[in-house]
Amino acid sequence: MAMAFVCHLSFLTSLLVLSSLINTSTATTRKLSALVQEQPLVLKYHNGPLLKGNFTVNLVWYGKFSPIQRSILIDFLQSLNSRKTPPPSVSSWWKTTEKYKAGSSNLLLGKQILDESYSLGKSLKTSHIVALAAKADHKNAINVVFTATDVAVDGFCMSRCGTHGSARGSGLDKKSKFAYVWVGNSVSQCPGQCAWPFHQPIYGPQTPPLVSPNGDVGVDGMVINLATVLAGTVTNPFDNGYFQGPASAPLEAVSACTGVFGKGAYPGYAGQVLVDKTTGASYNARGVNGRKYLLPAMWDPQTSTCSTLV
User: Fold this and answer.
1) pTM for the whole thing?
2) Would the CA dihedral through 128, 129, 135, 138 be positive or negative?
3) Smallest Cα–Cα separation from 129: which of 62, 225, 77?
4) Where are the domains of the chain?
5) Mean pLDDT over the full length of the chain
6) What does the UniProt entry say about where the protein is found (predicted)?
């Protein structure tokens, strides 16, 4: 959204509220707040390393996900660097990350671990998330943990819908840091907070929810939160990259533009997006295998505005 005006933070979502855990971590949160930025939005660069180059994305599926649910998220990840999808594409959205200290972040799908037996139980702390992420390879990797609908995670719904951070490996890998991401399926716990705009909000204007592009409110909401924390991961992996505010609760590449999906967005209104004529589903990005997604705005460091695809 090439606009000179300042981005509005949705009442449905809020500033990142996650204190430093393990090493450092940040989260995408959906606290209900209507904070308006009165000054031009600028994410300061704090001189730390960014994740530029080739990185493998390893997935840990914790709990039960259907094959269709897994394919929605996998197709999104494979769309990030795809050059074959027509505009507006997921890859053109991701390309904005190249403007952060020039250089591309190429994410390649790696190994997948299925943990359908809930090996750590159904109530997880951040230390459990890190332990699950550590099961995957560490070298040049971003390890993503997805939790199913019946898994409670510390802070989930109350202050966050997803997290990214870093941790050190174990054994021979103790000296190496790896980036991790967690995103939960909120459909049975707090869809009004973590799956908006595909579900009625808990508070605020009760506008009709949008139809989710892949027919799964929980997983399409996960895509929004995954996009948010992945962008934060590559542009602020170790809490010394690009962000505004305190390092313990920063505004990052996408969380700085929370609640904005299309032009004209304001608190409670996602903005002008595309609508599928057949299904009535709302989207603003095309991905591989004919997928459609609704992706949040990303702050553009060249224009200092929240940029949307449509």
Assistant:
1) 0.88
2) negative
3) 62
4) 24-30+41-252
5) 88
6) Secreted, Extracellular space, Apoplast
